[in-house]
Write a structure and sequence with these properties.
By secondary structure, the chain is an alpha+beta fold. The protein contains six helices and 18 strands. It has two domains: 114 residues, 2,3-Dihydroxybiphenyl 1,2-Dioxygenase, domain 1 (Roll); 162 residues, 2,3-Dihydroxybiphenyl 1,2-Dioxygenase, domain 1, CATH 3.10.180. The chain starts with 5 loop residues before the first strand and ends with a helix.
Length: 302
């Protein structure tokens, strides 16, 4: 199995780069810079980027970038992918330069979600200075946050995430939107080789934009509140109210990105000692708050 150390970056596609730039700087409070492909690097720490936004015909999520700590784990991961019969595309020098890494291996999971495995990030280590004064984002050795991906074949994709990509199951949620007699929409949460409660979650339903949401974490409640104010000031659609998750204890709200997936903006996420953790199923996704029906209401009004 692979030994993934964290979510290094995500790649989004947009029809409107200027809108993404305004959203990243003015609402997320992240820095931006031009990328060599004509796109946008969105910076949230000492890395050159954590969101790469590429110009294109769609507003969508396109790639999850996973990191290993060095060359040995990268080479071992390539063997795992080969043994599993996975088609791997090795990044050429231009692709490596675009992602600011030594090597890239790209592949798809059984639901068609695109993944990139990388090692050896390259950075100028310039100081992160948020244009809106965000103190900092919680990243470092627990990765940039987490991503929740849709599936068309849930069971096969879970098997791929655990048996090939080496993720460990953190816990289970079986969403029953129409009550106990209605259909079940499973969402399973997975950790990699760091303490973040989950770096990946897989949802048992398709999503047109290619992603349910990406979570980014700030260091305290005032930073979450200020982001809520900026979202309102920029008239960004909110997709869930402030709330706190049962599993990772994150206090967060949700809003739409210009690439049509959501950002969960939160603080206080659990860092777990996996030796002590007991896998379980929870039946409520939030301890309090997180009214997702406001997203449907604002979509209906739009
Ligand atoms: Fe989340």
């Amino acid at each position: 199995m692979m030994n993934i150390s964290g979510l290094a970056y995500v790649v989004a596609e947009t029809t409107d780069l200027a809108k993404w730039k305004g959203y990243a700087e003015g609402v997320l409070g992240m820095m931006t810079a031009p990328a060599p492909d004509g796109g946008l690097y969105v910076r949230m720490d000492e890395r050159q980027f954590r969101f790469a936004v590429q110009p294109g015909a769609r507003d969508a999520y396109v790639v999850s970038g996973w990191e290993v700590t060095g060359r040995a784990d990268f080479d071992a991961a390539l063997v795992v992918l080969k043994d599993a019969g996975v088609a791997v595309e090795m990044g050429d020098p231009a692709h490596c330069r675009l992602r600011c890494v030594q090597q890239v291996a790209a592949f798809s999971d059984p639901s068609g979600n695109r993944h990139e495995l990388v090692w050896g990030f390259r950075s100028d280590f310039a100081h992160f200075a948020s244009p809106t004064g965000v103190s900092r984002f919680v990243t470092g050795n627990i990765g940039m946050g987490h991503t929740v991906l849709p599936t068309t074949d849930f069971a096969k994709t879970v098997e791929f995430a655990t048996q090939v990509m080496g993720f460990g199951l953190s816990d289970i949620y079986n969403f029953q939107p129409a009550g106990p007699d209605g259909p079940t929409l499973p969402i399973h949460f997975f950790h990699c080789n760091n303490g973040r409660h989950h770096s990946l979650a897989l949802a048992g339903f398709p999503v047109e934009s290619g992603c349910v949401h990406v979570m980014v974490e700030v260091e305290n409640m005032p930073e979450v509140g200020r982001a809520l104010d900026r979202m309102a000031a920029h008239q960004v659609p909110q997709t869930a109210t402030l709330g706190q998750h049962t599993n990772d204890k994150m206090i967060s709200f949700y809003m739409r990105t210009p690439s049509n997936f959501d950002i969960e903006y939160g603080y206080g996420g659990a860092v777990v000692d996996w030796q002590e953790h007991i896998v379980h199923e929870f039946t409520r996704v939030s301890l309090w708050g997180h009214d997702f029906s406001i997203g449907q209401r604002s979509a209906a009004a739009a």
